[in-house]
Amino acid sequence: MPARTALVVGGTSGIGAATAVRLAADGARVVAAGLDVASAAGLEVASSGLGESAGTGSRVEVRELDLRESGAVEDLVGSFESLDVLVNAAGIIRRGDEHRPEVFREVVEVNLTGAMRAAEAAYGLLADGGGCIVNVASMLSYFGGPLVPAYSASKGGIVQLTKSLAVAWAANGIRVNAVAPGWIATDLTAALQADPVASGRILGRTPMARWGTPSEVAAAIAFLTGPDAAFITGAVLPVDGGYLSA
Questions:
Q1: Catalytic choice (123, 142, 151, 243)
Q2: What digits encode the pLDDT tens for the residues 55-112?
Q3: What is the model's pTM?
Q4: Which three-class secondary structure string do you get for the chain?
Q5: Phi and psi for 83 in degrees, rounded to 5?
Q6: Residue 151 falls in the annotated catalytic set
Q7: pLDDT tens by residue, 124-174
Q8: Could you tell me if 119 and 133 are in contact, meaning their C-beta atoms sit under 8 angstroms apart?
Q9: Domains of the chain by range and CATH?
Q10: Residue 114 and residue 39 in contact, taking contact as beta carbons nearer than 8 Å
Q11: How far apart are CA 191 and CA 199, in angstroms?
Q12: What's the CA gap between 182 and 211, in Å, rounded?
């Protein structure tokens, strides 16, 4: 059976990069697209060593993508001959600055509109092979963030986009799900991790009392893209160490 082809938008760092490596380890041919491709070159090295255990052809190819550029994601998707998996993991946050309308607009453009553009661009290819989409939501999909209104609004929108596309595209054989990471140790949360007060408050509410890792979120994404999730669509899976339940 030929390897699946996966595109991870936002796949050059954080959760997206971990997802690209995980899907490659599971045997997929993966394109990780995003900014700062020079620092993401290690993804190819990291995944290339997985070939024997993951199956012939498993690899990560890194491509540059800026979702703020008109037509960029559409051109990228248009370069694929086939596509089985789309992961929308791109995200920016401008903590403390998102009340400014121009900053609000940019964050929503990348986090929410970018995911919709990627999904719409990939629709035909995914429908051809009964593919799937996994969007990356957030704990902030469920409650407000006073310093990050744009990030919170965009991630709330990701949940509703996921449900809407799941209903709209089920008849075409496309499953659409999302993960909602809790407090994960990535560059986006570096300032909070370094702040003893903020970190203590977060860990104090997290029943598992630790930060999550990108690879743990990637594992949940891999499940949702795989055959064991064949009858799951429109779901939002928290990966949060129990934070939402506390």
A1: 151
A2: 444 579 999 999 999 999 999 999 999 999 999 999 999 999 999 999 999 999 999 9
A3: 0.92
A4: CCCCEEEEECCCCHHHHHHHHHHHHCCCEEEEEECCCCCCCHHHHHHHCCHHHHCCCCEEEEEECCCCCCCHHHHHHHCCCCCCEEEECCCCCCCCCCCCHHHHHHHHHHHHHHHHHHHHHHHHHHHHHCCEEEEECCHHHCCCCCCCHHHHHHHHHHHHHHHHHHHHHHHHCCEEEEEEECCECCHHHHHHHHCHHHHHHHHHHCCCCCCECHHHHHHHHHHHHCHHHCCCCCCEEEECCCHHHC
A5: -155, 130
A6: yes
A7: 999 999 999 999 999 999 999 999 999 999 999 999 999 999 999 999 999
A8: yes
A9: 5-245 (3.40.50.720)
A10: no
A11: 9
A12: 8
- Geometric angle at alpha carbon 237, from 234 and 243, rounded to 5°: 145
Look up tokens 């995980």; give the residue.
22
Contact 209, 182 (CB under 8 A): no
Encoded tokens for 194: 């370094």
